[in-house]
């Protein structure tokens, strides 16, 4: 087949028939809207979900955990783990549940984690996730403590204030100095962006935590690529096999932590993908009906093409190419607009909020003459409701390509199914009536 004349007729059909019927323009707009909406929604969802996941992996669970490690063997074992290819950082820590009491009588249960003084140097990624609103990472003194900003707000303390920390496991500690109740000085207030950590986490010196915790230290391991965790877990077992101090240690990966939480996020994203993807089904049905109508309206032209030598496959390919043009233009427009908005999502929502608030202001002025109630301003993600400072957006290139292909293939498949009707047109019958 000579595709030059096929593409020419298909393009002519798309761009020249709009005076009679705007079906092609509507189909292009439908596909562009679907691609645009899906890209923006998935980008915002990725921003929220990956922010939560990375907070958990980089601050809480790490990529791998080995522990408990016998006292005195932490540094030796950590040095051995760092020699394993693919390991980026190793941080020993201890953690325990405690009741923290502020200076004004406020008290709150919290998870207290003991970290070494040089934890930010050992794990730069964790240090980057801890944004300090007051003070800085300072655990040089055994009496220093770092609090989440929401935890500090509940306790009514700021940097420089003292808090009292009480831990039930400390009652069984050998040291009377640290048993039961201990006073610490707040040297920093951090924010992770994950409310659970900001409202229920505190960091102390790992040596201070030893007096409160009745279990040995644990090694938190960061990998260069966290998706290789199963392979790295087996490699760590083999590398550390027979080493002293690991007789009771367990080797676990990040996939074992918060499994239900990660599964819920994956299911939520899948169903959102399916629900928004229904737009493509609706647009595809619209294209299918438009192409079928086009076949009926152009019976004479199809008969003439067949009579002058155009084969059945060639004539059918005209309608398939018609759908390909519609799909490509619509998906490309939606992709470009979606990427533009997704990369400037905060500005996009700010503009929409200003437009809504402008009309609300006009309504308030009008209703003010009649002593009616005033309408409050509009905000998509109000800080009073959502625990965010700005709207996150993260677009994965593979997902953008997949969305583009969904839009393109929905038009292509719809046109292919509609073009089958051309095979039922008999040339002799068409020419006889002409």
Outline of the structure:
Helices cover 55% and strands 16% of the residues. The chain is α+β, with helices and mostly antiparallel strands. It has 2 domains: 221 residues, no CATH class; 180 residues, no CATH class.
Helical/strand content category: alpha+beta
Question: How many H/I helices?
Answer: 15
For the sheet with most strands, the description reads: 6 strands, mixed, barrel
State the low-pLDDT regions, or none.
Answer: 175-179
Strand content: 15-25%
Number of strands: 10
Series of H and E elements:
HHEHEEHHEEHEEHEHEHEHHHHHH
Mean pLDDT: 81
Number of domains: 2
| Shape field | elongated
Description:
There is one protein chain. The protein is α+β, with helices and mostly antiparallel strands. The protein has two domains: 3-51 and 262-433, no CATH class; 69-248, no CATH class. The protein contains 15 helices and ten strands. Helix 2 packs antiparallel against helix 14. The longest helix has 39 residues, at 23-61. The radius of gyration is 32 Å and the shape is elongated.
Which helices and strands appear, and what pairs or packs with what?
Blueprint: H1 3-16, H2 23-61, E1 64-67, H3 74-82, E2 87-101, E3 107-115, H4 119-122, H5 124-129, E4 131-135, E5 144-148, H6 149-155, E6 162-166, E7 181-191, H7 195-200, E8 201-205, H8 206-212, E9 218-223, H9 229-239, E10 250-253, H10 259-297, H11 299-307, H12 312-343, H13 345-368, H14 397-419, H15 427-433
Parallel strand pairs: 3-8, 5-7
Antiparallel strand pairs: 1-9, 1-10, 2-3, 2-6, 2-9, 4-7, 5-8, 6-7
Helix pairs in contact: 1-12, 2-10, 2-12, 2-14, 10-14, 11-15, 12-14
């Amino acid at each position: 087949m000579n595709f030059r004349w096929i593409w020419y007729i298909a393009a002519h059909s798309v761009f020249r028939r709009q005076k009679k019927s705007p079906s092609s323009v509507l189909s292009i707009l439908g596909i562009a809207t679907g691609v645009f909406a899906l890209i923006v929604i998935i980008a915002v969802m990725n921003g929220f979900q990956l922010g939560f996941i990375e907070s958990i992996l980089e601050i809480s669970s790490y990529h791998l955990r080995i522990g408990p490690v016998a006292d005195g063997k932490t540094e030796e074992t950590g040095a051995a783990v760092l020699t394993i290819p693919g390991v980026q950082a190793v941080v020993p820590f201890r953690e325990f549940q405690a009741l923290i009491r502020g200076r004004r009588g406020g008290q709150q249960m919290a998870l207290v984690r003991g970290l070494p003084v040089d934890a930010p140097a050992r794990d730069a990624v964790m240090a980057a996730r801890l944004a300090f609103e007051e003070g800085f990472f300072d655990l040089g003194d055994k009496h220093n403590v770092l609090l989440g900003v929401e935890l500090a707000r509940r306790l009514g303390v700021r940097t420089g204030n003292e808090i009292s920390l009480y831990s039930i496991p400390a009652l069984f500690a050998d040291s009377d100095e640290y048993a039961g109740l201990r006073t610490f000085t707040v040297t920093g207030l951090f924010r992770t962006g994950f409310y659970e950590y900001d409202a229920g986490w505190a960091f102390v010196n790992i040596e201070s935590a030893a007096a409160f915790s009745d279990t040995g230290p644990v090694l938190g391991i960061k990998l260069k690529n966290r998706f290789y965790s199963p392979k790295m877990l087996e490699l760590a077992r083999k590398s550390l096999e027979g080493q002293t101090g690991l007789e009771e240690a367990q080797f676990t990966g990040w996939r074992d932590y918060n499994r239900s939480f990660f599964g819920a996020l994956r299911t939520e994203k899948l169903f959102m993908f399916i629900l928004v993807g229904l737009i493509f089904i609706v647009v595809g049905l619209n294209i299918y009906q438009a192409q079928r109508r086009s076949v009926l309206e152009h019976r004479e032209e199809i008969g003439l093409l067949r009579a002058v030598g155009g084969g059945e496959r060639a004539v059918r390919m005209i309608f398939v190419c018609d759908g390909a043009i519609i799909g490509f233009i619509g998906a490309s427009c939606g992709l470009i607009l979606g990427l533009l908005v997704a990369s400037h999502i905060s500005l996009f929502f700010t503009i929409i909020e200003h437009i809504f608030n402008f009309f609300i202001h006009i309504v308030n002025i009008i209703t003010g003459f009649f002593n009616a109630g005033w309408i409050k301003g509009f905000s998509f993600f109000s800080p009073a409701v959502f625990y965010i400072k700005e709207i996150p957006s993260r677009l994965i290139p593979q997902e953008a390509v997949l969305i583009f292909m969904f839009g393109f293939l929905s038009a292509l498949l719809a046109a292919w199914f509609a073009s089958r009707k051309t095979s039922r047109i008999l040339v002799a019958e068409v020419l006889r009536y002409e």
